[in-house]
Amino acid sequence: MASKGARFVQHFGPILDALRALGGSGTPDEVVERIAVDLGLTDAVQNELLLSGQLRYPKNVHFARFYLVQEGLVASSKRGVWSLTERGRAIQLTSQSAREIFRKWTGIFAQRRKAVSPATDAIPAAAMEAIPEEVAEEAAYFPTTIKLKCSRKCRAYPRVDLSRCARQSCAKPI
After folding, report:
1. Distance between CA 39 and CA 6 in Å, rounded?
2. How far is CA 110 from the centre of its chain?
3. Does 98 or 128 have the greater pLDDT score?
4. For labeling, which of 93, 104, 127, 156 is most exposed (least CB within 10 Å)?
């Protein structure tokens, strides 16, 4: 397991391998199970909980899939089915190339955030390595959200994107 940064990056290659082994496509549960078998993950690793009560391992696999879709290696054309693109079939990811994909997309997401809200300071991709693991995982998966809480509860989200808040003046940083 990766000791620093976003741990889900280690699943980029295994997702592609699992999809190849499943004939090019599979349901999220099939892919998660196949990776666990291929990597020999223990029940303790598979059942580790996050503070939110969600299972860490499947959530990390889903985070990794998000980046593979962004990179064009996995298709998102049909709900509930993950499938390889032609590019995904042909590529063999190393841990270094997986990290490069992660850094590329966190940089793109940071640029998008700045374009939408220039006053918001974006986190540089290289700085993601120093952020505590759970925060990095969440920040990487939800790149366009700003940590705010609506004081009037016009929207009861713990994290509200300012553009989705009905009364932008009531949003306060948390």
Report:
1. 18
2. 14
3. 98
4. 156
Q: How many CA atoms lie within 13 A of 30 on its CB side?
A: 16
**Cα torsion at 155, 161, 162, 166 (round to 10°)?**
-30
Query: Would you give the distance in Å from CA 163 to the centre of its chain?
Result: 21
Mean pLDDT estimate for the chain: 77
What does the pLDDT look like over 50-103, one tens digit per residue? 888 999 999 999 999 999 999 999 998 888 999 999 999 999 999 899 999 999
pLDDT for position 116: 72
Domains of the chain: 7-90 (1.10.10.10), 145-174 (no CATH)
Residue 5 to residue 76: CA distance in whole angstroms? 26
* Residue-by-residue DSSP string for 25-77: EE-HHHHHHHHHHHHT--HHHHTPBPTTSSBHHHHHHHHHHHHHHHHTSEE--
